């Protein structure tokens, strides 16, 4: 079937655009409706006077109907077929397929474009992991330091007679290399967690969202002053428009907009002034504050996480806690365990790529909805910081007979003091950030080998 | 460029080894180790002129790091293998990357042995002995 067999589809499309019934077009053109129907479905050829008459009735050039604008679509379909040689298709029927099933053909076109875009993203991310100069340099420096330490320490241990000046020099070298190794490890973990400031690192919408919230310290006092939803919408629109270099993707902007609206609703229900008053009375007890204000526990956790450490810390008299400049951290996940909102803390980073540590109380709460969980957790890593985590999961969908509700879980992360025996009253649960960078080799929750164990 | 002579007269039989490496503490540790084993050790830390230094020093054995400032160890190896009188010199390549493609590249360019960092002292001494007698 040749290209002109698409003419029927174009007639039908044009007729529908101008809102004309098939029967009316058939009557004006002097043919039966059933014959026009066959033409429109490319089952009868059309040309000559009848084509000119129909074009005149439809107020369009006859050539537009006979040639159309499907050239690019046909090219795409042929390209898709060429890309999948193991799946033979009837190439000689491409035009017939596009003509008889134009929407399916366009869907293939859209999917081909989407696949091309995704493949490009995969290439970019793979390239970043395998050829990133920052990553390669960090690994090279670390292995250099490890090599020097290993060789030097072996000399010190295994050499029976070593001159004092050599011994002193080697001890200094080990100290230098240990310091270099420490700094390199921290830089590497920061890199793997995406804690970089360059805009070209924003490879996912989550990168953009985290950078946007991080640059404001997760605190938006101007948004909190908006009295109405309309005012908040305008403020949020302007906030997003002011950050085109960070919020580069439509998905990043959309998710940021949703999170900011949620922020505004939370602040509207529980204004900062009242929240701070209640924190000064009750301390970091989100359940008590939620009950007093008749709001849900998750919203109180989000409100507490939005308060800067400089404001929150002076109100906390419990010396178990050691609130720093970042305040308290927050992780929110949906029923799948995907982190949907995050505020990491020094010593408690939240993974941006891949899954987090399954031992977090955040995930424990998903299996025990509506039960508030509080525990002391000890992060893996060099300084094994301890945190009190408060977790709570609740349904986000209305109860419905026969339907399992979708849950949302919140986990507030409060840094514990390193002074004295603050955490001795309860055994700290050993946790990590994500399996990939966790050194706990025998962890029951391990999904994949750690880079510390399996080698880089 | 530094030179360190053997003090204890180990098994190195006073042969000359040139270490081209940019990590100063690795240079110091390996130099100490090899000199105690009886080697005469020269060192050089810049990739840019390393090939000229190798040709000038004419070591019995060459230890060559892959990632050097100025020029990669692979380039240097290719350069000296094309120099008259250097086609047979034993070369131990050191790298922080143990990927198969790096090992294959080293072999293709004519490296005698290939060692991944971090290595043990015993490993490097044993390897040099094997290279110097073969």
What does this structure look like?
The complex is a heterodimer of chains A (456) and B (134). With 456 residues, chain A is an alpha+beta fold. Among the domains of chain A are: 3-107, 434 Repressor (Amino-terminal Domain) (Orthogonal Bundle); 133-192; 316-454, no CATH class. Chain A is 53% helix and 9% strand. Chain A has helices at 7-18, 22-29, 33-40, 48-57, 62-67, 71-83, 94-100, 102-131, 133-158, 164-192, 205-215, 221-224, 229-241, 250-269, 272-282, 286-293, 297-306, 309-312, 361-366, 451-454, and strands spanning 329-334, 339-343, 373-379, 386-395, 407-415, 429-431. Chain A has a 6-stranded mixed β-sheet. In chain A, a hairpin with a 6-residue loop joins strand 3 and strand 4. Chain B is globular. Chain B has a 6-stranded mixed β-sheet with strand order 1-3-2-4-5-6, sandwiched between helices. In chain B, strand 5 (91-95), helix 4 and strand 6 (113-116) form a beta-alpha-beta unit. Helix content of chain B is 40%, strand content 20%. The model of chain B is unreliable at 4-9 (pLDDT under 50). Chain B is built from 5 helices and 6 strands; from the N terminus they run ββαβαβαβαβα. The longest helix of chain B has 13 residues, at 24-36. In chain B, helix 2 (50-57) packs across helix 3. Chain B has 134 residues and is α/β, with parallel strands linked by helices. Chain B has one domain (2-133): Response regulator (Rossmann fold), CATH 3.40.50. Chains A and B meet through helix 9 and helix 10 of A and helix 1 of B.
């Amino acid at each position: 079937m040749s290209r002109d067999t698409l003419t029927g589809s174009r007639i039908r499309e044009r007729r529908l655009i101008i809102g004309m019934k098939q029967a009316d077009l058939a009557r004006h053109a002097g043919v039966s409706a059933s014959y026009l129907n066959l033409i429109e479905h490319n089952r009868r050829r059309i040309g000559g006077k009848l084509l000119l008459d129909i074009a005149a009735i439809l107020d369009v050039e006859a050539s537009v109907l006979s040639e159309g604008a499907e050239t690019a679509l046909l090219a795409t379909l042929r390209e898709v077929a060429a890309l999948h040689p193991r799946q033979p298709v009837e190439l000689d029927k491409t035009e017939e397929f596009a003509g008889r099933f134009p929407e399916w053909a366009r869907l293939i076109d859209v999917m081909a474009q989407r696949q091309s875009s995704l493949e490009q993203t995969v290439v970019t991310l793979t390239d970043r992991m395998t050829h990133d100069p920052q990553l390669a340099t960090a690994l090279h420096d670390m292995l250099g330091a490890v090599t020097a330490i290993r060789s030097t320490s072996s000399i010190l241990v295994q050499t029976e007679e070593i001159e004092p000046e050599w011994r002193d020099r080697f001890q200094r070298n080990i100290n230098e290399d240990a310091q270099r190794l420490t700094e390199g490890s921290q830089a590497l973990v920061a890199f793997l967690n995406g804690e970089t400031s360059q805009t070209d690192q924003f490879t996912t919408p989550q990168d953009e969202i985290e950078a946007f919230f991080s640059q404001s310290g997760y605190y938006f006092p101007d948004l909190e002053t908006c009295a109405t939803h309309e005012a908040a919408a305008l403020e949020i629109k302007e906030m997003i428009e002011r950050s085109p270099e960070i919020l580069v993707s439509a998905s990043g902007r959309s998710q940021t907009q949703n999170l900011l609206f949620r922020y505004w609703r939370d602040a509207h229900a529980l204004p900062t002034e009242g929240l701070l008053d209640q924190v000064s009375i009750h301390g970091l007890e989100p359940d008590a504050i939620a009950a007093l204000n008749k709001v849900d526990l998750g919203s109180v956790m989000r409100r507490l996480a939005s308060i800067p450490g400089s404001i929150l810390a002076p109100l906390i008299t419990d010396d178990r806690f050691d609130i720093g400049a970042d305040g308290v951290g927050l992780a929110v996940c949906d029923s799948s365990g995907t982190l949907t909102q995050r505020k990491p803390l020094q010593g408690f980073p939240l993974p941006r790529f891949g899954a987090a540590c399954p031992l977090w109380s955040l995930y424990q709460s998903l299996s025990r909805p509506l039960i508030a969980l509080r525990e002391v957790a000890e992060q893996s890593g060099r300084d094994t910081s301890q945190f009190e985590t408060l977790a709570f999961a609740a349904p986000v969908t209305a109860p419905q007979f026969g339907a399992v509700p979708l849950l949302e879980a919140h986990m507030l992360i409060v840094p514990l003091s390193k002074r004295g025996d603050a955490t001795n009253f309860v055994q700290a649960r050993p946790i990590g950030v994500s399996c990939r960078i966790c050194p706990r080799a025998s962890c029951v929750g391990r999904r994949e080998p750690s880079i510390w164990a399996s080698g880089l | 460029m530094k030179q360190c002579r053997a003090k204890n007269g180990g098994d190195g039989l006073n042969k000359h080894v040139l270490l081209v490496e940019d990590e100063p503490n690795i240079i110091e540790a390996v130099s100490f180790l090899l000199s105690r084993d009886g080697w005469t050790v020269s060192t050089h830390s810049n990739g840019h002129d390393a090939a000229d230094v190798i040709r000038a020093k004419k070591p019995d054995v060459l230890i060559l790091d892959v990632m050097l400032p100025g020029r990669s160890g692979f380039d240097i190896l290719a350069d000296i293998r094309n120099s008259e009188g250097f086609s047979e010199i034993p070369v131990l390549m050191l790298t922080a990357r143990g990927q198969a493609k790096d090992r294959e590249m080293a072999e293709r360019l004519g490296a005698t042995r290939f060692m991944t960092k971090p290595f043990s002292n015993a490993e490097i001494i044993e390897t040099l002995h094997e290279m110097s007698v073969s």
